[in-house]
Amino acid sequence: MQAILAVTVPFFALVLAGYLAARRHVLPESAIPGLNAFVLYFALPCMLFRFGMNTPLFDLLNPAVLLVYLAAALVIVFFTIAVSLNERVQLKDASFGALVAAFPNTGFMGVPLLVALLGPAAAGPVICTILADLFITSSLCIALAQAQGSAAHGARTAALRALRGALSNPLPWSIALGAVFSVSGLKLSGPVDVVVRMLADAATPVALFTIGAVLWRASQHTHTRTALADYVPVALIKLLVHPLLVLLLAASAQVLGAPLSSFQVMVMALAAALPSASNVSLLAERFGADNGRIARIIMTSTVLSFVSFSLLAWAFGIRPV
């Protein structure tokens, strides 16, 4: 456990540092969008490009990993909606709650954390989960959110809008470009390679710091009181039910002969055990959902995941590389 904590503590400490810096106004609130933009459009794409360039294409787009992970995500989405709906939480809010229950923070936190724990081989399965969540899970949940009180055409329009948003996201394109380099055997050289490497090296610390700042900002822009029963169970679904379901479905797929290794199963389960994606609070705000509830789910999952994620890694017997 001590070796695992030696990896996880610095990651969560940087998230806490970002939160405290924003709360104490050392980092002005007006600077948070710029920090987020730097990570999203510069540092993280360079990091994912480098992983894509150094990872075999089949590992980046493994059909078995994609199908098992997507199956688990779909079950989590509909299960979370079913248990969330009540007089206070309507379909729109339940759908965004389902999105944070099924969409872990794999981009900003998961890739660097799992690579630090398991080595570069973890990048392929984690990138598979990112693509699944960006294109399928998020589009489905946004479509369900917009289906409340509207015709099927409205939900379809929302799904297409979400898909266009995923296509405008630089992360999948950086992964795709890395895959092209991987297949063709191309390599960067000279100053270009140095610039990309410098930006990639900045991705992990700045992304973690930004998560904390975004969490603080989301907590400041919540104007509704939310009952514990409306957000704590969703955070527990994210941290406990999601990884357990991934394990069960992956084990069943292995029994049926799916080409899944124990290492891939472990990576998928650990990815599912990550806290909720922090940027979903911005999506909820944009679509008029209860951003206060979503922010509380994300905050709760982030705080609790330090313990739950570390325990799961310890249960797997991981020895950081």
If you had to describe this structure to a student in words, what would you say it looks like?
With 321 residues, the chain is mostly helical. The protein has one domain: Na+/H+ antiporter like fold, CATH 1.20.1530. It contains 14 helices and no strands. Helix 1 runs antiparallel to helix 14 (291-315) and helix 2 (32-53) runs parallel beside helix 9 (170-184). The mean pLDDT is 90.
Record keyword descriptors for this entry.
321 residues, 14 helices
Helix content: over 70%
Number of strands: 0
Q: For the residues shown, what is the average pLDDT?
A: 90
Termini separation: 14 Å
Tell me the structural class. Answer: mainly alpha
Order of helices and strands: HHHHHHHHHHHHHH
CATH architecture: Up-down Bundle
Number of helices: 14
What is the CATH topology?
Answer: Na+/H+ antiporter like fold
Total tally of structural domains: 1
- Based on CA atoms alone, the radius of gyration comes out at 19 Å
Shape, per Cα inertia axes: globular
Highest CATH level, the class: Mainly Alpha
Report the β-strand fraction as a percent range. Answer: under 5%
Largest sheet: none
Unreliable segments of 5+ consecutive residues: none
Compose a concise summary of this entry.
This protein has 321 residues and is mostly helical. Helix content is 78%, strand content 0%. The chain has one domain: Na+/H+ antiporter like fold (Up-down Bundle).
